[in-house]
Design a protein that fits this description.
The protein has helices at about 15-25, 35, 115-130, 140-150; strands at about 55-60, 65-70, 80, 90, 100, 110-115, 155-160. By secondary structure, the chain is α+β, with helices and mostly antiparallel strands. Strand 1 (about 55-60) and strand 2 form a beta hairpin. It binds zinc ion.
Length: about 170
């Protein structure tokens, strides 16, 4: 019987590269446990400098408030001001940041908490609606957008303490 080497399916190097790329893109990027454990901790023993800190936020319109970070997670530097609606409320007076792990917020004080997946989905839906002006394009994967917003539970959310959403 004659051998037919040409009949044997051998992936070309291009096909192989494509397969490798497909496999690589299926791996979501997550910092490895080793990378996380070698990250230097803050003097208070946390991953983030702003962990459990009371921080002043101010806007050029005059609005000023102190927000508490209830967790060892990131907080945004600036966002929308509740008084003038401009995206100009900024973390100011960093030298006045106060480490307060046992802080009990006053009713009405705003607090950073971990974003929930449900809230991420709500934000994704609202954002897409705003951008698309109510006409969400067919095939829009809201769950994928929500995953990006959620960032594996590391994204911050801001709630008013003393209301239903507060912890
Ligand atoms: Zn303002």
């Amino acid at each position: 019987m004659q051998r037919k080497p040409y009949a044997v399916s051998m992936p070309s190097s291009r096909e192989q590269r494509r397969a490798e790329m497909r496999a690589a893109t299926k791996q979501p990027f997550t910092p490895s446990a080793a990378a996380m454990s070698t990250r230097p901790l803050t003097p208070n023993g946390h991953l983030h400098t702003e962990a459990f800190c009371l921080m002043w936020y101010a806007c050029e319109c005059g609005h000023r408030e102190r927000i508490w970070n209830s967790r060892d997670g990131v907080t945004p530097f600036g966002f929308q001001c509740p008084s003038c609606k401009e995206p100009k409320l900024r973390h100011v007076n960093w030298n006045l940041d106060q480490y307060a792990p046992k802080h009990v917020p006053a009713p009405g004080q705003r607090v950073w908490i971990d974003l929930t997946r449900d809230r991420a989905l709500e934000i994704a839906r609202r954002t897409v609606n705003q951008v698309a002006k109510g006409n969400v394009p067919v095939g829009t994967d809201l769950n994928r957008i929500a995953d990006a917003v959620y960032n594996e539970g590391r994204a911050p959310d801001l709630v008013v303490y003393g209301y239903v959403e507060a912890v």
